Amino acid sequence: xxxxxxTGRTNERIKLCLAVRKTAKARRENGLFFLEGARLCADxxxxxxxxxxxxxxxxxAEKYPDRLETILACAAQAFRxxxxxxxxxxxxxxxxxxxxxxxxxxxxxQIDPHGKYLALSFxxxxxxxxxxxxxxxxxxxxxxxxxxxxxIYNPKAQRAAMGSLLRLPIVQTQDLCALLADCRAKGxxxxxxxxxxxxxxxxxxxxxxxxxxVVGNEGNGVxxxxxxxxxxxxxPMAGRAESFNAAAAASIxxxxxxxxxxx
Length: 263
Fold this sequence. Notes:
39% of the residues lie in helices and 21% in strands. The chain is of the alpha/beta class.
């Protein structure tokens, strides 16, 4: 079945895609998020993400037939679009011509008291969020806890995650202090990362059992009220750098959290 061709920017579906791509407000109001790229959209379809709309160019259909077949098999609606509309919708320099509007996942609320979690507090950079989620999934972390900061459905975060934000359990909270207190009450170890050299070295910290480790905002780190409620850990550094990039710090912490289980 050949899908209808959309050609104009004023089409309501095109306008919705652009709005959802651009703002977290539009995503929240519509319960939708925007994905771009043949592989990412196919990964979303394969992991059970509900696809409300797929838009694709004729060239994409020729170049990515298998991935497009996976997407179209579960898309509620699909339309062909012109190369000009593909350029209009894309955030990349060389768009592949495949776009999807997807339904947001059901919010995760449960924490496994025996699991290992990384908490991101007010992390703003979507590339950092995506990279951390990708590392977390690769290392088998139970899930991410996200307090405010970057929207997990930000298109840049989704691209950087390469599907991990669609597969990894994610708990969203606006009150990390309360959540950490609940985790501690369940017997979990709760740590916060800090560049403070007097904190315990992460390489000498016991990460056995259920653990939550907090990484803070790129500019200000973990805020004081959380630091005061957690055991502090630090990543030993040499040289003159004052701190690690948030994604780099998270990767080191994630590895140390699981090192004893993967060695």
